[in-house]
């Protein structure tokens, strides 16, 4: 059984006061029961605030990126050990915005996943194709290469502790969503790639869908066999929308 994970990716949004309102709104409206795991991935300066506000709740918090170095002279970087200090349970690695704007390679993303795991933080490894790649029929090839770089550097036991997020680049922040079947096809393919390395890991790794997931489309997407949750950007900035997605599970 894979426990559904609904993760908010706040991106570069928020302030102490806005976060306080958002987080207390989420806590107040969380459905009872533990069928769904809830996570918010906040900008680094607000992780301590998340720890403070969420400590006694069932909502987990995580970061949006981590350095590919353990420590030292890397001005501006945040290490996995620092995220562990902020009691992050997860960290997003390889988001398409980091791949596009910071030229992150598949190998660099894999190194970040290794360092996160070394601090017992679960990496949420993002993969996804651009519109051009989809239209040229290269989707599977692109996502396979992105995932394979991570598979290559992990043991089977480590692989079982990652989360994968399939986020078609053309669906992020655009209002365009992959149809549930389109997403399911890629999710099933990603799981088959994991299974080549370890069937046990493939059975437990959660594969989230991301890209304009909203209360209106969440139910259909989350009903698909290999969609184990969502990575939500825009709709995670409103407690009402975020809670509606959680309730759709
Ligand atoms: P979106 O972002 O929900 O705003 O499309 C998703 C993401 O980039 O993680």
Q: Based on the structure, what is the oligomeric state of the protein chains?
A: single chain
Secondary-structure-derived class: alpha/beta
How many distinct helices? 12
Q: Tell me the CATH architecture.
A: Alpha-Beta Barrel
Main β sheet profile = 8 strands, parallel, barrel
Portion of residues within helices: 40-55%
3D structure, described in words:
An 8-stranded parallel beta barrel has the order 1-2-3-4-5-6-7-8, surrounded by 6 helices. It has helices at residues 16-29, 47-54, 80-85, 96-101, 106-118, 131-135, 139-153, 156-159, 180-197, 199-204, 215-222, 239-247; strands spanning 4-9, 36-41, 60-63, 90-93, 122-127, 163-166, 206-210, 229-232. 43% of the residues are buried. The chain has a single domain (4-248), classed as Aldolase class I (TIM Barrel, Alpha-Beta Barrel), CATH 3.20.20. The protein is globular and about 45 Å long. It is of the alpha/beta class and 249 residues long. The protein has 12 helices and 8 strands. The chain starts with a strand and ends with a helix. Helix 1 packs parallel to helix 12 and helix 11 runs parallel beside helix 12. The structure holds 2-phosphoglycolic acid (PGA). Residues 9, 167, 172-173, 210-213, 231-235 line the site of 2-phosphoglycolic acid.
Protein traits:
eight-stranded parallel β-barrel; binds 2-phosphoglycolic acid; 249 residues; 45% helix; TIM Barrel; alpha/beta; 12 helices
């Amino acid at each position: 059984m894979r426990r559904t994970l609904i993760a908010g990716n706040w991106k570069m949004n928020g302030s102490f006061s806005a976060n306080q309102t958002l987080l207390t709104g989420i806590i107040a409206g969380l459905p009872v029961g533990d069928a769904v795991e809830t996570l918010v991935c906040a900008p680094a300066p607000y992780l301590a605030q998340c720890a403070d506000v969420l400590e006694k709740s069932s909502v987990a918090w995580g970061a949006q990126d981590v350095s590919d170095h353990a420590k030292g002279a890397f001005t501006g970087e945040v290490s996995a050990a620092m995220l562990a200090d902020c009691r992050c349970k997860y960290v997003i690695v390889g988001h398409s915005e980091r791949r596009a704007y910071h030229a992150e390679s598949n190998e660099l993303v894999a190194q970040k996943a290794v360092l996160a795991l070394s601090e017992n933080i679960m990496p949420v490894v993002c993969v996804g194709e651009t519109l051009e790649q989809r239209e040229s029929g290269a989707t599977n090839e692109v996502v396979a290469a992105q995932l394979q770089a991570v598979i290559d550097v992990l043991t089977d036991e480590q692989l079982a502790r990652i989360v994968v997020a399939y986020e078609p680049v053309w669906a992020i922040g655009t209002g365009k969503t992959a149809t549930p079947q389109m997403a399911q096809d890629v999710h099933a393919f990603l799981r088959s790639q994991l299974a080549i390395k370890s069937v046990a890991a493939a059975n437990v790794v959660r594969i989230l869908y991301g890209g304009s997931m909203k209360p209106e489309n969440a139910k259909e997407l989350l009903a698909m066999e290999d969609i184990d949750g969502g990575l939500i950007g825009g709709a995670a900035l409103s407690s009402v929308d975020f809670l509606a997605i959680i309730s759709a599970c």
